[in-house]
Amino acid sequence: MFCNDLREKYEEKIILKGVDAETMNILLDYTYTSKMLITKQNVQKVLEAASLFQFLRMVDACASFLTEALQPDNCVGILRLADAHSLHSLKQQVQNYIIQNFTQVLSYEEFLELPADVLCSTLKSDDLYVTEEAQVFETVMNWVRYKESERFPLLPSVLENVRLPLLDPWYFVETVEADQLIRQCPDVFPLLQEARMYHLSGNEVSKNGRLLLLLLNASAQKSHGKEHYYEAEKEIITERTKPRMHEFQSEVFMIIGGCTKDEKFVAEVTCLDPLRRSRLEVAKLPITEQETENENKKWVEFACITLKNEVYIS
Questions:
Q1: What pLDDT sits at residue 294?
Q2: Residues 6+ apart with CB under 8 A from 39
Q3: What's the pTM value of the predicted model, to 2 decimals?
Q4: Which tens digit of pLDDT belongs to each residue from 216-256?
Q5: How far is the C-alpha of 111 from the C-alpha of 77, rounded, in Å?
Q6: What structural domains and CATH numbers belong to the chain?
Q7: What whole-number distance in Å separates Cα of residue 95 and Cα of residue 265?
Q8: At what angle do helices 88-100 and 116-124 cross, to 10 degrees?
């Protein structure tokens, strides 16, 4: 403003709008002393002024203060502030906080003010801290109804982040399909159909927990002169059939690979939950297209290890 060839350079008096006297005094003190006192009462005004005048160290200090002050009742406001001033690191930290404290944040109406893009990225996370997927569905519907006329067109894109196949089938029929907004939105029907097909295939919610690993090589397993085969059925696999990390956990079996009765390679990785009598195909083995097309190469070997609650295959 003053160093470049702008109008203000030649004026004797310049009116600075948007900065009150108290905040300006804090900036002037910092200019001469490199010290300032940040409080809950002044942090927003100091951040806005520091951003306006490009006091980058002050901006960083305010961002650090806000990160330490995150609470369920103020995180949405801090998120909007970070977004307004392009503080990407602070914005990411606030989003992570919301993901990790999702159920507490939901209890405050301010959550309903979240922008659509932030809400979608939050609900999409595998680490979203919920105990059941019904909480996520109800969150979406409450968010849409908060500004229904404005947000109803966004329902399909937001609902994509709800893992409808993992809902209890009775809840899906009685609550989801019966919802009037859902029934009035044809664009969500493919998502409903995906959940229906998943439920009709006999799958139920399967939670990842401690792993009991069962590895079947991609060849016939011989035992006492008999051959045992694993034959995979076609399963529905999308991002919406993958359980979230923090849902109720249980001990499961992981069946990796195998072969069919025709001695063909099986690339599926299946999770079996004996307690719930459920089965879920969770991944595909890292087999190349060339190996898939090569009919002569029937057997492929993989290495497999477990670490905490993860299975790694190569």
A1: 56
A2: none
A3: 0.65
A4: 433 333 334 433 333 334 456 778 888 787 665 667 788 88
A5: 9
A6: 100-200 (1.25.40.420), 211-313 (no CATH)
A7: 42
A8: 50
